[in-house]
Amino acid sequence: MYYWSQCSGTSVYLENKKIGHIENMMINKADKTVIAFVLERKSTDIKYRYFPLTKATEIQRDSITIESEEDIKVLSNEIRQEHIFVEDILNKSIVDDDGKWVGKVVDFAFDKTNGNIQEVIMSDSIMLDLWLGRRKMPVYSTVEFSEELIRIDKNAKKDIKKLQKGLKDWINADFM
Questions:
Q1: pTM score, two decimals?
Q2: In this structure, are residues 146 and 28 in contact, taking their beta carbons and an 8 Å threshold?
């Protein structure tokens, strides 16, 4: 799995020449897959550039390589409106079927071979993250993405797990 937090700012190379870095990603909200990486704008560019995930020949922690300059496309307003972007879902609320707030999105993990979003990393607040730790939630077909929020059902809600220990667990572990 590859996390958005690992991908943000990653350098992109074409034939051993750096052509930019990742600033955003396009997501197909219907099937919850990452479909493209968006590059930063150069000072002379009016529109953003992007390339499909399928055109990345190598995805490393610190670099992404593409094969051809023809793989880079200009991000039109029409394409932008058809997809959801990472910036649209980060810090958005996660609510259950009853409309109760469950947390907010702080990161997500996807399979870099096919783009399928596997899990969402969620937060309650900075203080609760420190005390209890962050949580992760698997992304099932019933999880709905939108620009406003992410809606989950009972199955996804019951499968939310702790991602790491918070201070509470560390303090209790010391007294055992």
A1: 0.83
A2: no
Q: What is the mean pLDDT of residues 37-44?
A: 86
CA–CA separation, 9 vs 31, rounded Å?
25
pLDDT, tens only, 57-90:
999 888 999 989 999 999 988 888 888 899 888 9
Half-sphere exposure of 62 (CA within 13 A, CB side): 0
**Domains of the chain, with CATH numbers?**
2-86 (2.30.30.240), 88-174 (2.30.30.240)
Per the structure block, which two tokens stand in for 162? 């702790």
Write down the H helix ranges in the chain. Answer: 4-7, 77-82, 86-89, 126-132, 154-158, 167-174
- In this structure, which long-range contacts are made by residues 82-87, counting pairs with CB atoms below 8 Å and at least 24 apart in sequence? 83/26, 83/27, 83/28, 83/29, 83/35, 83/36, 84/26, 84/27, 84/28, 84/29, 84/145, 84/146, 84/147, 85/24, 85/25, 85/26, 85/27, 85/38, 86/4, 86/8, 86/24, 86/25, 86/27, 87/24
d(CA 116, CA 114): 6
